[in-house]
Amino acid sequence: MRFYEELNDFLPLARRKVRFVHEFQRRASVKDMIEALGVPHTEIELILVNGQSVDFSHIVQDGDHISVYPVFESFDVQPMVRVRPRPLRTSRFVLDVHLGKLARYLRLLGFDTLYRNDYDDAELAALASAERRILLTRDRDLLKRAVVTHGYYVRATDPRRQVEEVMDRLDLYRAIRPLQRCARCNGLLATVPKLQVWERLPPETRRQVESFWECGACGQLYWEGSHMPRIRRFIENLQARAGATAPATGQIVDATK
Length: 257
Description:
23% helix, 4-stranded mixed β-sheet, alpha/beta, Ubiquitin-like (UB roll), Rossmann fold
């Protein structure tokens, strides 16, 4: 067996970036064998057995040579048979309990991101499957659930590094669309007249701000705030990592407390 690129993160040091022999006693699919070694199936894009592409149901035979590859970002392997019927890359997410700050960042960037701190594993897996969302998690066992077809194990622990990791892995820089979603609940934002929200505004904001947005789901009110330059720099730095030249649409706003 041989695992490539970041799939080695899940293996013990002695088995990383080398071919190794794996002994087995029972009849097993290639999916079960790979996950028994610690690699979630959601991280995998292509499996070659003796040079031929196979799906997860392939039954491993004695003497097989198995090569396992992660999602390809740099070239097209469409002519080959992949292990899932649809590409992994989408911009809809559901996140586990450990990734609350990452969820807020993704919503800030405009991505449809479900998060609650009381989702259990079964709910997360069901949402990922039913709504065709990428499951982002720090729990590799969660990604081994058969119902989960699109998922990613987040390696970093710092929220900002997590954002960069997810953006890099899924090539999402040009999909950034600020001022699309509520950072609190993921609802869609819409412009709202100042007079309509006048009573909800602090005195200083009434005098200095003219444009406002409201979440259609939870009613959270937003406006351009003093920390907008810092957030713009954050987004520009993200885009610069990939050499993105198209400016992000929308504006960045403060929320009422």
